User: Which sequence fits this backbone?
């Protein structure tokens, strides 16, 4: 009987500990938008998401495949992959590949993402340290989730980002 | 039944501990390059105080991209740092190579900014990266010359990110290797074909400083030659490389 109680308590402690170890992702919703991304962090990164009003031209599997190819390390080390289809605006990023620009005239004309239909492919479960200064003595940031934004009209990867 | 529960509990405990150990204990960073800091009189609250380091720039020539081990990477960057508030804040732009699969897909431009805590670190990666055997210009600069404003990151003038700034008081120019296995993960450059940092500049309290006086530093396997580097000399440059190759 005592053993049974001990193991029940131990199991509960382990399960509770496992839950604490996992990064938590809150779903946010505003103006019909549903996303697992953290609004405050996206705002700091000047990334705006909106609910798309039309269907994507390429399918989800193709987007994941392209993201895995372009950012292979993230894909290899991830224990979970999720995808969202969104409209993305980001005025602070211009470093698109020539292929991404030539395949999407709207993106080429704007020079940045402006309500662009995209897949956000999220690779989760890795633990990568940030690039720190030499001589750094603080707490090293560890990232557990890396996101690849794929053009939902052309399938071209556009940008990767991480904030948690 | 009891036996099943005990085995389950033991298994979960073991997996929990092994995951914790794997994540926390084995990552490391090694550097080769130089840094310096400046006197900045600004508590971060006034436009009348020193503006601090508002820009850092360097051209980086990379002869070839280095050998990468699993879960590891190699990169090169200029950085603005701040120790004004106690905790170190920093912002950098550069290239990183972290793929064993494909060099064409593994080399990316990146920008990272950290606001003084491990939970406020933001990274942006371009879908493209620099070609080997080329020179590219890497700059982090405030979008205004006051103490506040955003830190914009550019490569050859193309914008990669622009996020809220801080008051900088230091600059760093480094090659770095990082991750879980640095045994054969290499710095860029070899004994016979070295990487080159040139046109090093910093904009500090309203003045441009050409080739700032640097304190050089190297970890194991990092090589440097600063014999062609003189402060305030616009023609100065540094050679950096991996001494194993």
Assistant:
């Amino acid at each position: 009987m005592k053993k049974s109680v001990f193991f029940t308590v131990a199991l509960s402690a382990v399960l509770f500990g496992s839950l604490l170890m996992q990064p938590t992702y809150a779903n946010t919703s505003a103006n019909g938008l549903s996303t697992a991304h953290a609004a405050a962090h996206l705002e700091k990164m000047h990334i705006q998401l909106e609910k798309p009003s039309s269907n994507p031209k390429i399918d989800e599997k193709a987007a994941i495949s392209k993201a895995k190819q372009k950012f292979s390390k993230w894909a290899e080390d991830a224990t979970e992959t999720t995808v969202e289809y969104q409209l993305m605006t980001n005025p602070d990023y211009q470093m698109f590949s020539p292929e991404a620009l030539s395949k999407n005239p709207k993106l080429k004309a704007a020079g940045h993402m402006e309500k662009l239909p995209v897949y956000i492919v999220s690779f989760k479960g890795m633990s990568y340290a940030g690039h720190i200064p030499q001589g750094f003595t603080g707490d090293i940031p560890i990232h557990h989730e890396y996101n690849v934004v794929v053009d939902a009209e052309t399938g071209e990867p556009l940008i990767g980002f991480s904030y948690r | 039944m009891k036996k099943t529960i005990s085995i389950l509990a033991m298994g979960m405990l073991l997996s929990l501990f092994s995951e914790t150990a794997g994540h926390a204990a084995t990552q490391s960073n090694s550097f080769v390059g130089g840094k310096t800091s400046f006197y900045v009189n600004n508590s971060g609250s006034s436009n009348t105080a020193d503006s601090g380091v508002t820009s850092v720039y360097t051209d980086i020539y990379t002869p070839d991209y280095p050998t990468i081990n699993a879960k590891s990477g190699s990169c090169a960057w200029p950085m603005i740092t701040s120790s004004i508030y106690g905790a170190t804040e920093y912002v950098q732009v550069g290239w990183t190579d972290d793929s064993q699969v494909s060099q064409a897909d593994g080399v990316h431009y990146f920008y990272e900014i950290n606001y003084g805590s491990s939970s406020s670190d933001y990274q942006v990666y371009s879908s493209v990266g620099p070609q080997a055997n080329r020179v590219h210009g890497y700059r982090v600069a405030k979008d205004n010359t006051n103490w506040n404003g955003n830190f914009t990151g550019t490569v050859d003038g193309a914008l990669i990110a622009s996020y809220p700034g801080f008051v900088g008081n230091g600059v760093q120019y480094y090659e770095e290797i990082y991750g879980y296995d640095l045994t054969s993960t290499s710095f860029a450059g070899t004994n016979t074909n070295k990487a080159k940092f040139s046109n090093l500049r910093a904009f500090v309290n309203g003045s441009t400083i050409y080739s700032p006086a640097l304190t050089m530093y190297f970890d194991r396997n990092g090589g440097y030659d600063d014999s062609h580097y003189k402060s305030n000399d616009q023609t100065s440059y540094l050679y950096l490389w991996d001494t194993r190759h």
Q: What stands out?
A: DSSP finds two helices and 15 strands in chain B. Chain B touches chain A through 69 residues (CB under 8 Å). Chain B has one domain: 35-242. Confidence is low (pLDDT under 50) at residues 13-25 of chain B.
